[in-house]
Amino acid sequence: MLYDAIIAGLGPAGATVSYELAKKGLNVLAFDKEKFPRYKVCGGCISLKAKQILPFDFDEIVEEKIYGAVFTYKSKRPVSIISKQVIGYNINREKFDNLLKEKAKGAGAVIKEGVRVTGAEECSEHVVIKTSDGFFKAKVLVAADGANSIISKNLLKLDSAEYAVAVEAEIPVEKERLSRLKERIFIDFGCVPYGYAWVFPKSNSLSVGIAALSKKVNGKIKEYFREFAHKEKILMGIDIAKMYGWTIPYFNAAQKIAKGRILAVGDAADLVDPFLGEGIYYAIKSGQLAAQVISAKIGDEKIEIEDYNRIVEAEIYPELEAAGKVGNWVYKYPRLWYRILESEPALMEKYYSVIRGEGSYKEFYETVMSKIKKRPWRLITRLIKGHLTSQDLRG
Length: 395
Ligand SMILES: Cc1cc2nc3c(=O)[nH]c(=O)nc-3n(C[C@H](O)[C@H](O)[C@H](O)COP(=O)(O)OP(=O)(O)OC[C@H]3O[C@@H](n4cnc5c(N)ncnc54)[C@H](O)[C@@H]3O)c2cc1C
What we know:
Shape: globular
CATH class of the largest domain: Alpha Beta
Number of strands: 18
Structural class: alpha/beta
Distance between the termini: 62 Å
Helix content: 25-40%
Bound molecules: flavin-adenine dinucleotide
């Protein structure tokens, strides 16, 4: 049987492509190596802008609505910036991914769980996909197999040289502790070079994690995690027995994520925000764009699968590029960044508008830069001349 599309991986990116294509009446087969519901290393915070582009709601699985954050620097100097409007939702990835997979199934996609895609070969008229359950044929293959995508690496030849290292733990906690952490997330800067730590409250647990955008931290990330967990007041008395490491393939430079009859979405295409580490929104967004291109191609419109490169370049890359500039600056100069955040809390309201999808990273970056220009001239001159020492800025 020749499928219109085969999707490798059923995280938010693969489930979205499967759902969108099946809804349009295409013949879709999707594989995941795991059986759902399955654990996924993730903080599980979904931005309002991600919720807004999903074609269905997920209210029944929301664990906590988020209105803002308490920021700290090395677990000290707390600044609480809480908005009147919601900025995001804490969810549990087991439930969220299962819901998305069920939506795809409900729309008519054929789902095979516990089947691993091991390779593929492209011919002129179709792609042959090799799996642990045999060979399958499709007009288009979608790589949605996450951060360690074998399809992106072997067939699209993507160079995922830049990635963040991360560690996360889901810790069951008592109601009393959770009641003190309602409707906000906790973000600490300065606890790890080139990164941050988080505590995201869920209905019965906390997602605690740390991520760093530098491979220099590789091998030491668990140490930083333990140090943060030990210092952080809201984790006082909690014993973290189990933690999970993973990588975050953040956006670094534009790449050709579609070639011939194969294209990549989500983490498999390195579509993760290099400042915040937000990937779920970009997984859904790229999944939707991929589905538009595939259905147009199957419908014989004048479009090629490779046009997906141009569309992603126009619709996703500009935001990720601007997020990269913010990340570069903040993680290079965390102490200066924190001083600005402390003295200008309204700046974070501006950032919340980016998370809500009302503002852009480009605007936010420009605002941050204008605040820096207003700092004492001596600091700026030294910053521009590159004379600021790590002592001055990193603390
Ligand atoms: C510690 C950590 C915290 C994070 N926190 C957040 C957060 O709070 N908010 C946010 O927006 N983003 C967060 N992210 C990023 C987010 O998890 C990812 O960007 C997102 O999951 C990408 O979705 P995806 O569908 O592309 O990939 P994934 O969710 O990784 O899904 C890939 C799927 O492919 C399957 N698969 C893999 N290989 C194969 C194969 N060979 N054959 C078949 N199936 C295969 C896997 O089992 C998996 O189900 C975090 C990431 C990490 C590591």
